[in-house]
Amino acid sequence: MPDVPEPQPHLIRPAPPSERSVRSAGHEGWDRNYRLGIWNGFLVSVGDGFLSVTVVLAGFASRLGASNAVIGLLPAIAMGGWMLPQILVAARVRALPYKLPVYRSAALIRALSYVAMVLVAALLAGTPALCLTLFVLAMTVNALASGVSGLPFLEVCSKIIPAGRRNAFFGTRNLYGGLLAFGAGLVVRWILASGLAFPYDYALIFGLATLFYVVAYALFGKVDEPPDTPQPPSSMAQELRQIPATLRADPHFRAFLTVRLTLAFATLADPFYAVYALRVLHVPASQLGVFLLALAGAAPLSNVLWRRVAERKGSRRIIRYSAAAAFLAPLLALSLGQGTAGAYLLVFVALSVAAQGFNLGHTNHLLNIAPPAQRSRYIGSLNTLVGLALFAPVAGGLLADHTSYRAVFWLSAALFAAAWWQCGKLRRDA
């Protein structure tokens, strides 16, 4: 599923040569590892542009007649499945001097699961129940494999990208990757409006996403990883037992976990903005491509903003501003009615702006507060706990089925407001 570089490893920021000097050097500091990491980010962004969970996958499931609970399950699987395995992965990889072999093995499983999704969509849409069941199963395998690869990915990034260049590294990936994802959105819009029969239109979109993801994984698998000093081996049971002690010992980690959990619960409305437009506002299916363009088009511009905030104000401020932007999405959806498809684009603009800020802010904040010797434990603990909360869209679907989409949007707005307030307790960057 979308390769969301959810923020993890460590970083107590040593004062590097100055980010200003790094920026002024242009591409001169782009060594082989840096370039491979950048290209990985670009290609993953294109794949994400084709395989947007909240627009493309939600639209596909809606065309198959899926219930709101099933539609809510899709982002829960994509994000929650990415996070849940990481406590197990943290226990296993801490004793390994090289983490890249774990990444490569998981990438192979991810590639095979994408191919399965393409075949299921192309061949089984005539039996919607079977198609949805097998598609969700392939998504689940993919998400769990993504979770296995996510921690090694971030561990490797923490070793190959110097601390003072990580803002620039992730900012560049997000900025230009967002521009490329906009191009993917144009292709999706063209495919959905082309007259290509369902489900072949979606199967083609899934196939293009697969191509870009596989190349991205292959490129990152070629980086030269320096060895770690192996940590003592651990088990998942030991890691789980350490979570309460870690939370008691580190108030900054506690505050960050509280914010992340609240934000995760607030995503209960995310998959229903597109479904609400299709089922309640009666916008045509081809409009999904336009919504995707709004998501992709806002990303590069917002990344310019977030990178400046990161350099001047720090990760705490990024997260707080992003929560405010996310708060606008449900309010906009609540305020717009039929005949407002053009203005409804602003919902997806707000979602995109917030998502880019969260990606950068969460990464940098956890890197800043996690001690080097415990980075795997911090990554695994936070992602496992937040991963459970990311199944909130399933509850959002049940709430929509029993009440209305508007009730889901109101609850989401309230949770984003609560997260904004809790951001005041986060540690300021040094």
Instruction: Give the terminus-to-terminus CA distance.
Output: 34 Å
Number of domains: 1
Q: What is the string of SSEs from the N terminus onward?
A: HHHHHHHHHHHHHHHHHH
Taken from the alpha-carbon principal axes, the silhouette is globular
Spans of 5+ residues with little confidence (pLDDT < 50)?
Answer: 2-26
User: What is the strand tally?
Assistant: 0
Radius of gyration using CA atoms only: 20 Å
Average pLDDT: 83
Helix content: over 70%
Task: Tell me the fraction of residues in β-strands, as a range.
Answer: under 5%
Main sheet?
none
CATH homologous superfamily descriptor: MFS general substrate transporter like domains
Helix and strand arrangement:
Elements: H1 19-24, H2 32-50, H3 53-63, H4 68-83, H5 86-93, H6 100-124, H7 128-160, H8 166-193, H9 200-220, H10 236-249, H11 251-266, H12 272-279, H13 287-312, H14 315-335, H15 341-369, H16 375-389, H17 392-402, H18 405-422
Structural commentary:
- The protein is mainly α.
- It has one domain: Growth Hormone, Chain: A, CATH 1.20.1250.20.
- It has 18 helices and no strands.
- Helix 5 runs parallel beside helix 7 and helix 14 runs antiparallel to helix 15.
- The N terminus is likely disordered.
Write a concise keyword list for the protein shown above.
single chain, 430 residues, mainly alpha, Growth Hormone, Chain: A, globular, disordered N terminus
Summarize the structure.
This protein is mainly alpha-helical.
